[in-house]
Amino acid sequence: MSYLFGVDYYPEHWPKERWATDAAMMREMGISIVRMAEFSWAKWEPREGEFHFEDLDEAIEVLAREGIDCILGTPSAAPPAWIIRQDPEIEPMDARGLRRHFGGRHHDCQSNPVYRAHIRRFVTAFAAHYAKNPHVVGFQVDNELGNSHADLCYCPSCTARFQQWLKEKYGGIDALNRCWGTAFWSQQYDDFSQIDAPRQTASGYNPSQMLDWKCFCSDLVCDFHKWQADILRAAAPDKFITHNLMGFTEKVSYYDLGKQLDFASHDQYPGGHFRPRLDVPIADTLASELDFIRSLKNKPFWIMEQQSGITGWDTLGRTPRPGQIALWATQCIAHGADTVCFFRWRSCTFGTEQYWHGILPHNGEPGRYYREIKDFMHQTAPVLAELQGAMPKNEAGILFSYRQEYAIDIQPHHPQLRYLDHMKTYYSSLYRRNIGADFLPEDADFSPYRVLIAPLQFLMTKALSDKLHAYVEAGGTLVLDMRAGIKDEHDLAFDEGPLPGMLADLVGARLTEYDCLREMDGLVHWDGKEYPCHLWSDIMDLTTGEAVAVYDKAV
Amino acid sequence: MSYLFGVDYYPEHWPKERWATDAAMMREMGISIVRMAEFSWAKWEPREGEFHFEDLDEAIEVLAREGIDCILGTPSAAPPAWIIRQDPEIEPMDARGLRRHFGGRHHDCQSNPVYRAHIRRFVTAFAAHYAKNPHVVGFQVDNELGNSHADLCYCPSCTARFQQWLKEKYGGIDALNRCWGTAFWSQQYDDFSQIDAPRQTASGYNPSQMLDWKCFCSDLVCDFHKWQADILRAAAPDKFITHNLMGFTEKVSYYDLGKQLDFASHDQYPGGHFRPRLDVPIADTLASELDFIRSLKNKPFWIMEQQSGITGWDTLGRTPRPGQIALWATQCIAHGADTVCFFRWRSCTFGTEQYWHGILPHNGEPGRYYREIKDFMHQTAPVLAELQGAMPKNEAGILFSYRQEYAIDIQPHHPQLRYLDHMKTYYSSLYRRNIGADFLPEDADFSPYRVLIAPLQFLMTKALSDKLHAYVEAGGTLVLDMRAGIKDEHDLAFDEGPLPGMLADLVGARLTEYDCLREMDGLVHWDGKEYPCHLWSDIMDLTTGEAVAVYDKAV
Amino acid sequence: MSYLFGVDYYPEHWPKERWATDAAMMREMGISIVRMAEFSWAKWEPREGEFHFEDLDEAIEVLAREGIDCILGTPSAAPPAWIIRQDPEIEPMDARGLRRHFGGRHHDCQSNPVYRAHIRRFVTAFAAHYAKNPHVVGFQVDNELGNSHADLCYCPSCTARFQQWLKEKYGGIDALNRCWGTAFWSQQYDDFSQIDAPRQTASGYNPSQMLDWKCFCSDLVCDFHKWQADILRAAAPDKFITHNLMGFTEKVSYYDLGKQLDFASHDQYPGGHFRPRLDVPIADTLASELDFIRSLKNKPFWIMEQQSGITGWDTLGRTPRPGQIALWATQCIAHGADTVCFFRWRSCTFGTEQYWHGILPHNGEPGRYYREIKDFMHQTAPVLAELQGAMPKNEAGILFSYRQEYAIDIQPHHPQLRYLDHMKTYYSSLYRRNIGADFLPEDADFSPYRVLIAPLQFLMTKALSDKLHAYVEAGGTLVLDMRAGIKDEHDLAFDEGPLPGMLADLVGARLTEYDCLREMDGLVHWDGKEYPCHLWSDIMDLTTGEAVAVYDKAV
Fold first, then answer.
1. pLDDT tens digits for A110-168?
2. How far apart are CA A359 and CA A346, in angstroms?
């Protein structure tokens, strides 16, 4: 794949007579790939089993005439009205038991077997139809999986699937009772069928159940993707499959989802869209997301949606300054993007995203965004062609774990502590010193890194502890910080030994109790915020671990 | 009708022995009209079909003996418990699908056919009973229509009626799909029966659907009023019908509702009732509401409820300063009120509005409010008698449109932009220069006005554009501002031409794109607030339109 | 009972092999009583009617061997999963009609007859089993009654019971209509079966209904307690019954609940658990709660749960400084606690309260908390043994009334006025002058007190007025303040006479109306906050009541 630049295109939003003009303008800019089709189920299957891909075929053909290939998305993020009216149980349910309805997008339960049957029928036909089309080079399943589903879904289907997931994880109910600590507050279960999704309670939640729920939700999204990807791959084995990820969105583990992809893609909107003018991401935040997406598969990635103008729904983000769109796109390339697709070709005149501005404005006449992006493509093309496939060799690694994030966010201890914010303070420290970093899952190879930053290692396993010990013994510099080693993989506190548990020898101190004398001395100040010195965190600056520097940003 | 002063009276809240005393005290003050009956359905019809108007007859008679006439309200804002228990589907439903229950007021769905049958039975009997009573001179339907229903009603009955409304508007489903842009996010409908009220979604709304929903809600209120008014007029053709409106409340178009009234009325509570001490309306806000109510029918109006003391439910507004009640009432007269009724005669000792203070306190003994209001009536009577029927001749008009308000509030672009707040900055500018203004709907005759201020002309039609052109060609000064001409009547962005679209020639500039270079220069500062310069707004100060001054308050 | 120190212990959370170690360590510290069993229903009755008290028996025996007795709690605050799955109607319902589900605690409706049948079965067996056990000296019913139920329960069972409660209170529906003022907004009821719990309305609530609802909720909790206590007392007449109360929690009247107890107990967590670091109770707030608990039965009380370390669920409170735990416990003793039990023995490694730290940390090894608390016990034991049974003789009384609190909180008038906050300003004034105070219900004997502070006497009855008059006539100094005497016991405003109504002669002024001239002069400043001078409040500083000093803190 030698595509340099692309665009997200919705030919079904415009008259056919316009398509050739669009395609010619795209080619002229330097576009050789478009993503299409991911939100138009009702168009391709207006009635059950009645497929109409003629218009999409024609759009592909029009683009192909200008030398433009395409990626097609499956439309499962927006089931049509006729499906919802026929099977309203597909609508997702929140923790209070209330459904979310048709009229926006993501009005679907991803576990629902009735919905899956609809998807199977469509995707099977879709994949068969495009399997042999030489201009269709790849697929995207659904859209931004995890988006809009942050607080969903607690419906009976998801509950049943959660029970099944727990059964597979724990085998028997006794193991679950032990690992969830259901002896507390009389929460013992006799049978998996008694277990609920964590719906709204009168008071309090079981943290181990919450952790499993979050992991289940992630797994469900991965299963939903894999299940569609399997249909696609079976029918069209020579097409690639990628997905438009969204940085550090937490609903689904991108490590897991990434394993199913031929390569990762990322959607980037630095201008904000619902935020006040000044509350927009800055360079280091953007860079951290790009480095993370590159780290998922440890290889170059695509930008599937790169901001092409002002964005927003009912409220808008800020106007990109002259040159700023090119700046953002260039940063993506610098961090490992091999292909940059802009979202979207032309601002839609209708629907929720009327103000999510495209390269072309509503009236379709080229303007500033068009000129700037065209110039960017022309100037960058030779360099990008050269760079494709190149990878940085970083000496700093950051251990980023969804499980630690889930566990900390379930029990942040301090209302202002968020796992991601905290982790990013390390990233920013490196970034400001121009030190490149990779993000690493727990099962990564740590050995290539001179420094391994491991923030908030709340949940500790023997396997991870062994890896960290081996890393330090081999001469690596390990940065640990507060709350490490307190809990096991089930979010249960260890019931013996000094803190930080299995890591105690690494930090050069064996504590027989929390150092409360130090705790009361004050707060830890970290990057302009303060945290309370609960547990063993603040003893760290007293220690002289062989290979450990805590709270030392000068790595 | 030569009534100068009136009061809102609830004889059913007090012992009969007191009525003559009240009536005599009213007469002595200068009161010649009272409004009664609008909240006491259970009293007049304690069981289905069993009507008891004896007490109300007697109260009317007692008042008549003192020369006081009355207006009677229909009681549909508070259906009694026996109706709700018998037909609980009458209770309204919110966007999440939850009912609002009996125990307050406005616990009704205005479209529900079962509820309408109850109302028909009552109002028919009510109108027949009072049709020949010479002391009953007019009717009010329900109370403050639109109040408490801001986020209601999404019940099956309203959904069905919305479908019917859409069918009548669009004829066929294809037209609706086109005008709602349902090609976006796969929202095509095959049939009107698939369409929902815009209940809670997982993510995002269709702005065209939202606009239609808001217009439907307004039309439903108007229909609810007309349907009752028709019953009243058929039985009692010589009584007037008015309604106690509430300034710029947005649920229902007062232009439309006003067409059904013999004259408009307004409820005015400047002291606030749920607000912190200092967050209360000031003179220009009050004036704008009065000018708007006068503009509805372009003739004098009544104040149906004028604040007579501290107001509030569970929390209270501020205490009127000495003389302030008279000041407020005088301002009403100055802006076109011909009759001023005070709310209420005596503070109720029970119920939600125990602290909504009347002219008399709970104990019924005249105090400061009584003395101040009596003095006001005596002093003002000769002047008001002279003024009745007089109308200002204003040279400035403000184009106020519910459709523009709905569209801007659905998509404010900037979180702090509200249509009403923005419009009022123009009004205040005029007010501080002592320039009188009328509010005009789109179908008004603009020609009498030297200046026409047309803020936020977001939705533009050929008809309106033609009117604005003709106005300018005839020498009028037209003030346009940001976001004009971007969308059509269906809330769809125009897909061709320069901005501001049909108005481009009026502003002396044909833009081929958004002037993004200027956009990035900063924010528009307007009356102490700042707005982002999205779209074409900020190019205006560069233009030299023949008859256009933008952002120029010196009209 | 000569127990000095105790602890809350959950042997079922730990391996049996550990129990003897725990018991020995407890004895060594000075512990002679433990509370157990109140959250482990599923453990004692894993299947309906199948009771397993063997482990609990063994734990009691292990403790007894070290000379430690125990109190057992009934487990009704956490019905097990098998009950909820079998009878899901037990789950409580909020005002919107949504259930709260299993997964935390307090997921129960206290009126539900099905739930009561489950409790009856368990408690009967439980009481029978332990009636003769000499080491079980008392019972606690449920846990912190009122906790987590602040906004619950509006289910059909509670609604039916509310109707029954109203029937018993009012006899006939006419009396209810009169006392609720249902003539307002057409709220008349024909029958008690028409009356709802005050579920969510479209707009507004009836304050008299709200007051009855709050009183009903309090009575329901008391009934729930009494109903269990009766079962316990019948089976085990020689055991005491106490309850772990929570200071000024408002859901249930502790005056009423206290009548059922042999002695009161209190749970004290001064370090906070969900609060920012500095927003924690200070000495006078803690003292007020202790004085209140002592006042309930006018005799010494227990601390059933005394903070033993950092507390919290997902977020944590502040770390107790060295010595601070002892300081807090000592304050309890100084205000009348005869026995102090610490919560809990050892931090739980699982469940919601993993971070609610015990005397021992997760690893079970004695640390700072253990050492500090042990030292406290050893040093304090001789003094406390001496002090047990001693009572202060206070000359200042504060009239604290749940009904006044409910009424003020239903209609606070000013958004920032809260009954408790206001009352505590008086307490703090006394506290800072080292003047001891008792809290008194309306039916207390006022005569022993030189000063009686009666804040916010909003609801006034003839009986209370007579008592206050008699108190003043006998030479007592009565402190009244704003809003006194405005309403009757049904939350209806009095409809005659000057304010403050029955109290008017006490304050040396007969007002014929609200002193509005004074009202507008400003706000009342009271302890750093300001309140609006609505109603008659601010006239007080003009009066020269014989025995009344208003706004005078120098009592």
1. 999 999 999 999 999 999 999 999 999 999 999 999 999 999 999 999 999 999 999 99
2. 6
Distance CA A268, CA A373 (A): 15
Which tokens hold the place of A529? Answer: 């915020």
Asked if B52 and B46 touch (Cβ cutoff 8 Å), the reply is yes
Using an 8 Å CB-CB cutoff, list chain B residues near A75. Answer: 186
pLDDT above 90: residue C42: yes
Q: What's chain A's length in residues?
A: 555
**Residues forming a β-bridge with C55:** none
Is A521 in the C-facing interface, judged by CB distances under 8 Å?
no
State the helix-helix crossing angle for B283-297 and B324-334, rounded to 10 degrees.
Answer: 40
Token pair listed for B220: 């439903």
User: How are beta strands B396-399 and B451-454 bridged, if at all?
Assistant: parallel
Indicate yes or no: CB of C201 within 8 angstroms of CB of B101: yes
According to DSSP H, which parts of B433-492 are helical?
462-473
Cβ proximity of A444 and A476 under 8 Å: no
> Which tokens belong to B272?
């606030």
- Residue from B83, B158, B319 whose CB has the most chain C CBs within 10 Å, to mutate: B319
pLDDT per position as a tens digit, A380-394: 999 999 999 999 999
State ipTM: 0.93
Is residue B527 over pLDDT 60? no
Sequence-ordered strand ranges (E) for B48-135: 69-73
Sign of CA dihedral B72, B78, B81, B86: positive
CA C485/CA B363 separation, integer angstroms: 13
> Buried b / exposed e across A282-320, counting CB within 10 Å, b at 16+?
eebbbbbbbbbbbbbbeebbbbbbbbbbbbbbbbbbbbb
Q: Please check the confidence at residue C294 and state whether its pLDDT lies above 80.
A: yes
Taking residue C545's Cβ as centre, other Cβ atoms within 10 Å add up to 18
Taking the C-alpha atoms of residue A416 and residue A422, their distance in angstroms, rounded to an integer, is: 10
Residue with tokens 């500062």: B525
Cβ neighbours around B371 below 10 Å, total: 14
Q: pLDDT band at residue B441, thresholds of 50, 70 and 90?
A: very high
The structure's pTM equals 0.94
Q: Which residue is listed with tokens 């209370």?
A: C464
Catalytic residue selected from C250, C289, C305, C353 = C305
Neighbours of chain A (3+ CB pairs under 8 A): B, C
Annotated catalytic residue C144: yes
Q: How many CB pairs under 8 A join B and C?
A: 182
d(CA A455, CA A404): 9
Give pLDDT, residue B550: 31
Q: Kindly write down the DSSP assignment for every residue of B117-151, as one continuous string.
A: HHHHHHHHHHHHHHTT-TTEEEEE-SSSTTTT-TT
